[in-house]
């Protein structure tokens, strides 16, 4: 069963589910989908905060035991199957699209994904569980107030705080790559964060690392499941969309700031990847903002 095909509208028809859109979905209690003995995939990153009881899951063929006070993180497209659970098993489950998380621009995000892919269980000790529970409860409370015009902004900042706390708990500043591919991928991401406005070619980053572009692309693809050029393009699109939302710069200014030779080249790039031009995208975003949806 591929749950990635379920949209927010489908989730909304299930009890105990709160959504803003397909990017953020909160399951207040253990969801019926997680109570069935089926193998499924999610097109979201899943963070389950275990409030009561325990359960056993298979993730990509590896068995994991989770219990109260654990944070269980499942990366999108991983195969998941619940083996068993205690009668009192209960969890808050937060689902987020990878695109949504990438747009938060969290430092060490790549290290975070690598860490939880290697070991998806974070054992929370002392006050840490209370911190996460309060954060999840605040997200739930905000999602209940559908008439709040700032709902999406509040949820985004709460999720960003959660991600920073998770990075702190995992001590990602001291993260050690576990393979040559991880090391190359992390070097590429760090260089990209530094030079993405100036350099859009994989060969530039490969030369900085004294490696071939083909090898760098292979490493990035192995670790992130995305090509190096796709990663560069995503970085540019995220910052382009943010700049278009802020409205304090013209499209021409944004195009030159992001390293495009002229606005026409930027417009063609944006339309190719978004199926809409930057001007139309900004106008649509203006309408959404006015309706309190943004």
Describe the fold and architecture.
There is one protein chain. With 294 residues, the chain is an alpha+beta fold. The protein is 49% helix and 18% strand. The radius of gyration is 20 Å and the shape is globular. The chain starts with 7 loop residues before the first helix and ends with a helix.
What is the helix/strand order?
HEEEEEEEEEHHEHHHHHHHHH
Strand content: 15-25%
Span of the ends, CA to CA: 31 Å
Low-confidence stretches: 1-8, 287-294
The spatial strand order of the largest sheet comes to 1-2-9-4-7-10
Mean pLDDT: 83
The major sheet is characterized as: 6 strands, antiparallel
Number of extended strands: 10
Please give the count of helices. 12
Helical percent range? 40-55%
Radius of gyration (CA) equals 20 Å
| Shape label | globular
Structural class of the secondary structure composition?
alpha+beta
């Amino acid at each position: 069963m591929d749950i990635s095909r379920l949209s927010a509208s489908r989730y909304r028809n299930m009890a105990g589910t709160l959504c803003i859109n397909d990017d953020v979905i909160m399951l207040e209690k253990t969801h019926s989908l997680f109570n069935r003995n089926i193998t499924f995939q999610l097109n979201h990153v899943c963070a389950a905060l275990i409030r009561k009881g325990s359960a056993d899951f298979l993730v990509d063929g590896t068995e994991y035991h989770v219990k109260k006070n654990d944070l269980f993180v499942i990366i999108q497209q991983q195969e998941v199957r619940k083996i068993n659970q205690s009668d009192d098993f209960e969890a808050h489950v937060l689902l987020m699209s990878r695109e949504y998380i990438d747009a938060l621009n969290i430092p060490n995000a790549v290290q975070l994904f690598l860490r939880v892919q290697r070991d998806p269980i974070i054992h929370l000790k002392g006050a840490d569980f209370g911190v996460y529970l309060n954060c999840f409860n605040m997200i739930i409370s905000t999602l209940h107030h559908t008439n709040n015009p700032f709902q999406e902004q509040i949820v985004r900042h709460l999720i960003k705080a959660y991600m920073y706390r998770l990075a702190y708990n995992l001590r990602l500043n001291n993260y050690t790559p576990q393979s040559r591919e991880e090391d190359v991928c992390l070097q590429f991401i760090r260089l990209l964060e530094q030079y993405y406005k100036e350099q859009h070619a994989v060969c530039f980053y490969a030369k900085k690392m004294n490696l071939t572009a083909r090898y760098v692309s292979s490493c990035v693809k192995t670790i992130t499941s995305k090509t190096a050029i796709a990663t560069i393009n995503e970085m540019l699109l995220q910052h382009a969309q943010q700049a278009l939302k802020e409205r304090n710069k013209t499209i021409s200014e944004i195009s030159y700031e992001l390293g495009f030779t002229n606005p026409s080249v930027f417009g063609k790039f944006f339309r190719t990847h978004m199926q809409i031009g930057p001007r139309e995208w900004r106008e649509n975003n203006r309408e959404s903002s006015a309706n309190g949806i943004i």
